[in-house]
Amino acid sequence: MNASVLTPARNETGREVACAVAYASVGNVAVGFDILGHSLAGPGDRAEVRRIESPEVRIADIRGCVTALPTDPQKNTAGVALLAFHKALGLDHGLELTLHKGIALGSGMGGSAASCVAALVAANALLPQPLSPEALYPFALQGEALASGSQHGDNLGPMLLGGLVLATKTRLLRVPVPAAWHCALVHPHYVLETRKARAALAGNYALGEFVSQSTNLALLLAGCYRGEAALVREGLKDVLVEPRRAALVPNFAKVKQAALDHNALGASISGGGPSVFGWYESRAEAESAAAAMHAAFAEAGLDSDALVSPVNGPAAAVISAIEGNP
């Protein structure tokens, strides 16, 4: 992004501190590897960013469900995102970050992405003329790359805009979804690192696999735009990535089948896993499925957390404080 098109960062409002929350998300949505995701109403990462006189980025504290993270901003996803933001805007003051983690890392719920987005939305609120969510996207991509080794926006896009989002390297496009459609996501208490999940995808792929996956992605997007569940049901099947990652998720086949048995439009691994999700035409179906998926993980000796949310989940937002409810 050309820094010359960004708003000058004089603090004319007098605001010295701002807080924001970025909610969890389902990455890939089975058929859109690295480019499609949707946000979830539920857990989120919260960030407090304070204006400081020294023109640098600092991380003051990390709290919440994950605390053993680097406080060196160059080694922290949120820190890298803020460094890119600070440099592009040419700020003459510094930014100090306090992060409250509400999303576990290695969960398949976008934990690293949420830290980037929450920090950027809070920092953005300190500007006299805040940037659009889309303008924050390039900075978030730089932070996310630290965690996964590549720039991809399937988690970042929906966190910034809310709902289902198609995220390319340069563009975010929100995809309409009927309000009644819900997601059931079950997160087992088991860590699957993003880099390990991506390493499982190494190797050769057949051209026919790409054609099938492209067909399914097209069907899902068409079904969302037209509000036709039958099209989504036909398309929400991952033939490319899921077969290579399934063995990394304990009891995955039974958890997925539990989701499908409750009339899912489709079900698969959320992001890099180990969380598993399913889409449903109603909240009631999603709630029944979540209980069955929880039971299937229990068969493997794993406790889990179940979450039911509209597919049209919330966007990141400014909040009053990082502690408590947003």
Your description of this structure?
With 326 residues, this protein is α+β, with helices and mostly antiparallel strands. The protein has 10 helices and 11 strands. The chain has helices at residues 77-89, 111-124, 133-148, 156-161, 194-199, 207-226, 229-235, 242-245, 252-261, 283-299; strands at 17-27, 36-52, 57-64, 94-101, 164-167, 172-175, 182-188, 266-269, 276-280, 304-310, 317-319. Strands 1, 2, 3, 4, 5, 6 and 11 form a 7-stranded mixed beta sheet that branches. Strands 8-9-7-10 form a 4-stranded antiparallel beta sheet.
Annotation keywords:
7-stranded mixed sheet; 11 strands; 4-stranded antiparallel sheet; 24% strand; 326 residues; alpha+beta; disordered N terminus
List the helices and strands and how they pair.
Blueprint (H helix, E strand, L loop, with lengths): L16 E11 L8 E17 L4 E8 L12 H13 L4 E8 L9 H14 L8 H16 L7 H6 L2 E4 L4 E4 L6 E7 L5 H6 L7 H20 L2 H7 L6 H4 L6 H10 L4 E4 L6 E5 L2 H17 L4 E7 L6 E3 L7
Parallel strand pairs: 3-4
Antiparallel strand pairs: 1-2, 1-11, 2-4, 2-5, 5-6, 7-9, 7-10, 8-9
Helix pairs in contact: 1-2, 1-3, 2-3, 6-7, 9-10
